[in-house]
Amino acid sequence: MIEPMTDVSGLSIGILGGTGDQGKGLARRFALAGLQVAIGSRSAERAREAAESIGSGATGGANADVAAGADIVIVAVPYDGHKALLESLTAELAGKIVVDCVNPLGFDKQGAYALPVAEGSAAQQAAAVLPGSRVVAAFHHVSAVVLLDPAVDEVDLDVLVLGDDREATDTVQALAGVIPGVRGVYGGRLRNAHQVEALTANLISVNRRYKAHAGVRITDI
Predict the structure, then answer these.
(1) Is the CB of residue 103 less than 8 Å from the CB of residue 79?
(2) Can you list the positions of beta strands (E) in 53-199?
(3) For residue 73, what are the CA distances in angstroms to 87, 108, 199?
(4) What was the pLDDT predicted at 5?
(5) For residues 21 and 23, what is the distance between their CA atoms, to the nearest angstrom?
(6) Are strands 182-188 and 157-163 parallel, antiparallel or unpaired?
(7) CB neighbours (10 Å) of residue 211?
(8) Strands (DSSP E) along the chain, which ranges?
(9) CB–CB of 30/72 below 8 Å?
(10) What is the topology classification, in CATH, of domain 12-210?
(11) Residue 72 and residue 37: Cα distance in Å, rounded?
(12) Rounded CA gap, 14 and 8, in Å?
C-alpha cells in the first residue's frame, strides 16, 4: 500500500508554461482542489488570460514572478525552450521543489518518438541547470484533454514520481493525490526519468489507435 500522504494544502503552486493545455489543465485541477495556483508565461497578459479562463481563484504573471512566489514550481514548457527558461530562473528557483513534466518528443509521418537528451532526460537536464533546486519528475502522462474537460470529475490515472530527495518526492506524490482519482506513485531515482518521458510516445500511439486518452495504472500497490 502507498504510505499516508504529506499535507500540501497550504502550499502555493506555480506552473511555468501554464498557458499551454497541459499546464493549464494541471492549474485547473489544483485550483479546483483548493490550492493557491499561479500560471506563468513569457507574457504576463497571456498568463492572466489563461488564469481567468480556468477560474477558481488562479492568478497569472510573468514566469520569473511566478517562479519566485510559489512553494512548488511545475515546468510544463515545450522541450525546445526548456533549458533556456530554466537557465534564466536559477535564482528564483533556488531551494524550491521543481517538478519537471516535460517530454522530449519528435514527430514525423510515423508518429511520436523520444528525442535524445545529452543529460539523459529533461528532468536530469533540469537538475543539471538547477543545482540549488530539488528537482522531481512527474505528471508526464496526464491527458490535457481530460484535465480540461468539465465533465470529468475523476481522473483515472497513476502519476509516476521520480527523484533523489525523499521529502520532495513524497510532497509531489501528495500533490498528485489532490486531483480526484489520481495517485502519486514513487517511480525511482531521477536517473530513470528517461523511460518515463519516452513512454509518452507509446501512449500517444495508443491514443491515436484507440481514439482514447489513456494513462497509466500501477497494479498491486
Answers:
(1) yes
(2) 59-62, 72-75, 97-100, 105-108, 111-114, 134-137, 157-163, 182-188
(3) 15, 31, 23
(4) 73
(5) 6
(6) parallel
(7) 6
(8) 12-16, 36-41, 59-62, 72-75, 97-100, 105-108, 111-114, 134-137, 157-163, 182-188
(9) no
(10) Rossmann fold (3.40.50)
(11) 10
(12) 14
Please tell me whether residue 217 adopts helix, strand or coil conformation.
coil
pTM for the predicted model, two decimal places: 0.96
CA–CA separation, 92 vs 100, rounded Å? 16
pLDDT given at position 13 = 98
Give the span between the Cα atoms of 185 and 76, in whole angstroms: 20
Closest listed residue to residue 171, CA positions, set 159, 157, 153: 159
Q: What distance lies between CA 57 and its chain's CA centroid?
A: 20
Q: Where are the domains of the chain?
A: 12-210
Per-residue cell: 151? 465533465
Residue 55 has a pLDDT of 83
Residue-level pLDDT at 117: 98
What's at 60, amino acid-wise? G
Average pLDDT, 10 consecutive residues per value, the chain (221 residues): 80 96 97 97 96 93 98 97 98 98 98 98 98 98 96 97 98 98 98 98 97 96 94
- Mapping DSSP to helix (H, G, I), strand (E, B) and coil, where does residue 189 land? coil
